Amino acid sequence: MISLIREQLALYNIEKNFEKVVCSPFLKWPGGKRQLLRELLKRLPKTYNRFFEPFFGGGALFFKIKPEYGYISDINPDLINLYEVVQDSVEELIISLKQHKNTEKHFYELRSADRSKEYKYWSKVEKASRLIYLNKTCFNGLYRMNSDGHFNVPFGFYKKPNIIDEDNLIACSALLKKTEIALASFEAVEKKAQKGDFIYFDPPYVPLNKTSSFTKYYKDDFDLDAQFALRELCNRLTKKGVNFMLSNSYTDTVKELYKSYNVKIVEANRAINCKANGRGKINELIITNY
Ligand SMILES: C[S@@+](CC[C@H](N)C(=O)[O-])C[C@H]1O[C@@H](n2cnc3c(N)ncnc32)[C@H](O)[C@@H]1O
Description:
The chain is of the alpha/beta class.
């Protein structure tokens, strides 16, 4: 089994073949950018040296453009552990994923695992496998934690969840092998990015109103101070000659924060809680400094 997967990996590493390979995000992530991809792709700078994505989540834009040199980071340790495992140990991950069962009992056993003392002794592969499994089988494929940092979404009762997309994981592994991965807050890009580089910022959005929006991906909320600190970072990066593109909600706060940049209103098709069919068009903002 391992040798078969290795052969496939070797194939994807051959540059010509890799160009044709489609990589898709393998996690469904709140605020994921699949719905906004067309608008983002239209607005990429014509050329850039290195690509940075410091609010990585599911990495929709990164997996679409497959950058030659990428730096990806996020503040969520489970998420970054998963990308490191896909980068280094995709064979073991696939074998581990094949052992999961789509039952309520197995789901709740795995969900509660991070509340036990033994969890800290789990291997990186076991933790990564648990995250993919929970993401594929939980209700709505949501990722949500309680205030102690524990995953708390209920079982989804899906008939055939696609827990292992083997070819895609292998293709993503080949891409991640060319990528630097860091567990870090967004500010860390400042030291890394140089003139001519390009950064895509996709922070937790400024809420549309007090109850509507989800900003709590990890234990800490991404509050207004954090939004302000991000804008200050954008100002310093601009002075340094780094190009950035940023997405955020269509709100007065965001318009005010980025009023000295190019601000475009775009339409996204998003899950909207108050609508009966659950989806609807909503305006969002894409900001660039070029
Ligand atoms: C809107 S999501 C990104 C979605 C992603 N673009 C996609 O396509 O799936 C925001 C991400 O920012 C991360 N995050 C929250 N606070 C952060 C911080 N201070 N520094 C870095 N990442 C942070 C969250 O863990 C989450 O994964």
